[in-house]
Amino acid sequence: MATIIRPADWATERASIRAVREEVFIREQKVDPDIEWDDQEETAQHFLVLEDGVAVGTGRITAAGKIGRMAILKSVRGSGLGFRLLEAICEYAREAGVNRVYLHAQRHAEGFYSKAGFVADGPEFVEANIPHIKMVRHFG
């Protein structure tokens, strides 16, 4: 399979981005659709993971350096695509001159983000009825 991870344009590729997020967050994790879509969609830099031209993953980074909405379809989870996506987003941030990025990790995924160089920063909190922890990664 040919895998491509690349920046995506919300205006022209929103259907692919939405399809992945709807499957992972809304159907699988039962996130309320009213809070899944926010005012950052049009200004964030989105990314797509494509396998043979089909979207299987997505993520984004905001101007403030917040990585979020990381989602990989269940059918390809565990294949390393999530890590590769995260590294692509971090590389994009580094190239843009960002010194640090952060994210709100679902607690069950804290180990995944730790392996990518993120460190917990603060207490656990609940977001979309799911326990999370803020995690930060510094570049330099």
TrEMBL record:
Which CDD domains does the entry mention? NAT_SF
Listed GO MF terms: glucosamine 6-phosphate N-acetyltransferase activity
Q: Which InterPro entries match?
A: Acyl_CoA_acyltransferase, GNAT_dom, GNPNAT1-like
Query: Where would I find the N-acetyltransferase domain in this sequence?
Result: 3-140
Q: Name one Pfam family in it.
A: Acetyltransf_10
Q: Specify the signal sequence span.
A: none
Note the PANTHER family from the entry: GLUCOSAMINE 6-PHOSPHATE N-ACETYLTRANSFERASE
Protein name, please? N-acetyltransferase domain-containing protein
Q: What lineage is this protein's organism placed in? A: Bacteria, Pseudomonadati, Pseudomonadota, Gammaproteobacteria, Cellvibrionales
